[in-house]
Amino acid sequence: MSSITMPSADADELLTTGEVARLLGVSRQHVVNLTERGDLPFETTGTHRRVRRSDVDHLRYSTQRLSADQRRSLYLAYAIAGKLVQDPTLLDVARQNLARMRERHTRGRPAQWLREWQELLDGPLDALLAALTSPSQRSRELRQNSPFAGVLTDAERMAALRAAR
Description:
3 strands; elongated
């Protein structure tokens, strides 16, 4: 399965507290504290805590508030998604932009996000629209490396930004 599936393909997968900490970007001790407070359900395997991926995803995506910048990028993405539904040929603009971006960014995190955009642009439109308009952390980061420059007119862009206020 593609690396762009959201949320995890195996929601029942049990993770260690260290794995959960890496996913959430917090310390392992913080994960232990979350389990002790009852904020994160867990099971024990011997003396070790195990947390279901679905519970991590729920905590991860339900508690993260959007910053003003993230809210603006989400509203711009809504506008882009609307145009793509009406005119899927606009994907060609994104593909051309992406090709230029991938030439400049061949390594590191930006290159990873651009590879994900490539998978999305090459996949079904529904998956692309879901990734564009999701409030998830992954989609927030994808939108920071968006290949959709030039898809919206100035008027459409300004209308989306006004709506985000």
